[in-house]
From TrEMBL:
InterPro entries: GPCR_2-like_7TM (IPR017981), GPCR_2_secretin-like (IPR000832). This is AGRG4 protein. It is a multi-pass membrane protein. Coiled coil: none annotated. Pfam families: 7tm_2. Residues 1-153 form the G-protein coupled receptors family 2 profile domain.
Amino acid sequence: MLNMVFLINSWLSSFNQPGLCITTAVLLHYFLLAAFTWMCLESIHLYLALVKVFNVYVPKYILKCCIAGWGIPAIVITIVLIINKDFYGNGSHSESNPFSNFCWIQEDIAFYISVVAYVFLTFLINTAMFITVLLQAHSLKSRTQKRSRVWKR
């Protein structure tokens, strides 16, 4: 859906309808945040599968992942809309090309907080999970090598 909304965004912005542009920008923002949220959930799942292998039963795990994956971006979008729906709008990058219009976040502070900070937080969580999984794999490998040396003796 992110790709679809992105591809039709400039076409929809060419209609010069503020409501349509706000809706398109909100959908684009939502699906972008949802994609990053699901990427973060995948790293948490990788951590649970490779580090916390045993005794990891989470009741209704898929339901909780779906609520987090689709709900957290919805909360962010709702907060931005409550603060000011006019943060979303039509931004023209070129006067000579009418198809350069793009419906997106127009306010810099809202963009940095609701997109850049969100992506950065996702990046930090993914990096932490990746390092933890790598350390677990390395310790497992070293333990296996020690056992094989003991068996060879």
